[in-house]
Amino acid sequence: MTASLTCRAPDRASPVGQRPLGVFVTLMPQAYFVERIGGEHVSVSVLVQPGQSPHTFELTPRQMTALSSSALFFTIGMPFEKTLVEKIRTELPHLTVAQADDGIEKRIMATHDHEHDSSAPDPHIWMSPPFLRTIAKNVANALRLADPDNAQDYAANLDAVLVEIDSTDVRIRQILEPYEGSSFYVFHPAFGYFGDAYGLKQVAIETEGKSPTPKQLNGLIGRAKAEKVRIIFVQPQFDRKAAQAVADAIGGAVIPIDPLEKDVLRNLIEMAAKLEIALTE
Question: Residue 64 class from Cβ within 10 Å (0-12 exposed, 13-18 middle, 19+ buried)?
Fold first, then answer.
């Protein structure tokens, strides 16, 4: 799958190959793959820093300045990127923009009632190992186009990464196969693709940036009790009060789980292990 590229860069004062290629990404999980595939040939910066939420992110003037001296920017499909890319095309026409999510068909995020869908696509594609293969290939292709002198290195590194993705996928399937069809409860609905990949269903407390109404919260509590749920997963980027309210009502616990960890493959395996515990109790 080829990465979709826009705003091709003209020749720069320092030719590619004499110094690392300056690359920006939106999220930490992207940085993991750019660094693994790019190796010594890239210098990677990240827009959304640890503890920040990409759903409320605002670009700083310093980051815009840093972008101006970069050669390549990988998007991932977060809503705020649309405005940023338009700004780049106007103010930074030399900067190449590559879509790491190119070729991925996205699911639609469910609303609180879990029966009616919103029109918003779910951007959390890095939570699915099968989609990570596409992301990695898009990264390698964009690096190759931006820096053809090191194309062989990018191809070799891609092959190694794809092997690790497949190994991670197999390991997670072994962990979660006994629980296929089960539901797991989260605060923010960032794990839909993960659930789809392994036959699980996420039940979210917060959707589309909105906490549940008292009626919806009571419905979630009733459902959690019926399904004998004892663990609610919550991301550190969000207020845990609503999740804690559900946990208190069902006599359960709130467990942290971060979909924005940089080492995405290790993080996915650790998530699977936490889910195994939650679904066993």
Answer: middle
Buried residues in 142-163 as b, exposed as e (16+ CB within 10 A): bbbbbbeebeebbeebbeebbe
- Residue 44, both tokens: 């990677």
Q: Can you give the pTM of this predicted structure?
A: 0.85
**Residue 6 pLDDT more than 70?**
no
Q: Give me the domains of the chain, ranges plus CATH numbers.
A: 5-107+125-171 (3.40.50.1980), 176-280 (3.40.50.1980)
Rounded CA separation 110/118 (Å): 6
Paired with 119 in beta bridges are none
* Pairwise CA distance, residues 216 & 235, whole Å: 20
